[in-house]
Design a protein that fits this description.
The protein folds into two domains: 127 residues; 116 residues, no CATH class. By secondary structure, the protein is mostly helical. The protein has 13 helices and two strands; from the N terminus they run H-H-H-H-H-H-H-H-H-H-H-H-H-E-E.
C-alpha cells in the first residue's frame, strides 16, 4: 500500500469514528441512542476512500455486530433504532456488495426481530445481482413473502429462483411447486416442474416430479371441466361427481398420492386433499 493511501485510510477512519461516536467500543450510557446518529453517504465514502471501500465496510460491519450483540440494546431498541441498524447494514452491503453476511443478516434478523420486513427485500434483491450463484438470498426473499407478507405467489417465484441455483437443496423444487399450487397458480407450477423434470438426472427426484406434474395436469383438466359445467348449467357443481353425471368427463382422475380431488366452492378452485404429497386430515 502506498504511503499516501495509508494516510488517507487512517484519516478516513478517524473521520468516521468522529462522525459516529462512541467509536468502536459501545458505551453503556450511549448504547441506546442510535436514532441520534448520522451515516455518511456512500458517494462521499467512495470519494474519500479511493479504493478502500471494503475496509470501511468492515468497520461499519463491526459496528452492526457490536450493536446487535448487545443484549441490552436489543431489549430497549425501538423502531427508530432498528431502522438505523438496517441503514447501517445496507451501507455495508453498498460499500462491499460482494460480501454475503450483510444480506444474510438483513434477511434473517430484521423480519423476525423488528417491524422491518418488506424493507429488507430491496437489499436482498441487490444481493442477487452481485451474488447471482447464491441460492440463500432468493430463498430468504421467498420466505419473507410467504411467512411475513402473506404472498404465496411472490414466495413461489423466489423459491423457484433459489431452486435453480447450483448446490441448492432439492426440497426447494417441491416447495416452489406447492406454493404455486396454494396460490392458485397451477399453470406456473406445471411449467416450472416440467422444466425441472427435464433438467434433473436423479431418478428418485425425477419420479417425484412426474407425480406432481400428474396432479397439476389433473387439476387443470378438472378446472376446465368445472368451467364447462358452469357454462352449461349456470351453476357451480356440488362436487366433482356432478361432472361425471352430466357427461362432461368420464371419471374423476385418480390422485397419485392417495388423496382425492375435490371442488372447493368457497375458493372456487379444484384442489387435492394431499396438497401435492403433503397429507392432511380431511374435514
Amino acid at each position: 500500500m502506498r504511503k499516501e493511501g495509508k494516510i488517507l485510510l487512517i484519516l478516513l477512519c478517524l473521520f468516521l469514528i468522529t462522525l459516529s461516536k462512541p467509536g468502536l467500543l459501545l458505551e453503556k450510557e450511549r448504547a441506546y441512542q442510535l436514532k441520534t446518529r448520522l451515516l455518511p453517504r456512500v458517494d462521499m465514502i467512495e470519494l474519500l476512500a479511493d479504493g478502500y471501500k471494503e475496509a470501511v465496510a468492515d468497520y461499519f460491519w463491526m459496528r452492526v455486530t457490536l450493536y446487535y450483540g448487545d443484549e441490552n440494546w436489543r431489549k430497549r431498541a425501538d423502531d427508530e433504532d432498528w431502522g438505523y441498524l438496517l441503514k447501517l447494514t445496507d451501507l455495508v452491503a453498498r460499500l462491499n456488495p460482494y460480501f454475503f453476511m450483510p444480506y444474510y443478516f438483513a434477511g434473517v434478523v430484521f423480519p423476525w426481530e423488528s417491524n422491518y420486513k418488506k424493507e429488507v427485500i430491496p437489499i436482498l434483491e441487490r444481493g442477487m445481482k452481485y451474488l447471482p450463484d447464491e441460492w440463500r438470498i432468493p430463498f430468504l426473499i421467498g420466505f419473507i413473502y410467504f411467512y411475513f407478507l402473506d404472498s404465496k405467489k411472490r414466495a413461489a417465484y423466489y423459491i423457484q429462483l433459489a431452486s435453480e441455483k447450483k448446490d441448492s437443496p432439492e426440497y426447494l423444487i417441491k416447495l416452489a411447486a406447492r406454493l404455486y399450487y396454494e396460490a392458485g397458480e397451477e399453470e406456473s407450477a406445471l411449467l416450472f416442474l416440467e422444466q425441472m423434470e427435464r433438467s434433473t438426472s436423479e431418478p428418485e427426484l425425477k419420479k417425484e416430479i412426474k407425480r406432481r406434474i400428474k396432479v397439476l395436469k389433473d387439476i387443470l383438466f378438472l378446472k376446465g371441466a368445472v368451467q364447462k359445467y358452469i357454462e352449461t348449467t349456470g351453476k357451480e357443481p356440488e362436487d366433482l361427481e356432478d361432472l361425471v353425471r352430466t357427461g362432461i368427463i368420464k371419471e374423476v382422475p385418480r390422485e397419485p398420492y392417495g388423496g382425492r380431488y375435490y371442488y372447493d366452492r368457497k375458493d372456487k378452485r379444484v384442489k387435492t386433499s394431499s396438497e401435492l404429497g403433503k397429507r392432511r386430515k380431511e374435514k
